[in-house]
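Q: What structure does this chain adopt?
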Amino acid sequence: MVVSFHELAERELIDAAEYYEREQPGLGAAFIADVQRCTDAIVDHPEAGAVIRGRVRRRLCRRFPYGVLYSIRQDTVRILAVMNLRRRPGYWIGRS
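A:
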């Protein structure tokens, strides 16, 4: 499967990694690795994520309080948001 990121999801990933890196050197890389593990799990088992709304599913990161929201389109996984689970729960609605 091909993975594509919505431009705002990619921005969220970068912003969060930069924040964590400022908090503690190396933590930003750990965050990116955690999101990558989550994305790999989505590719391996795309139907396993919990359905959040319509065709949007969510996989939780292990170490950080983030979820990866995605939709499945034929042979593509579209990452819609890299969402902090402690903030604004519905801000991503309307992304495709």
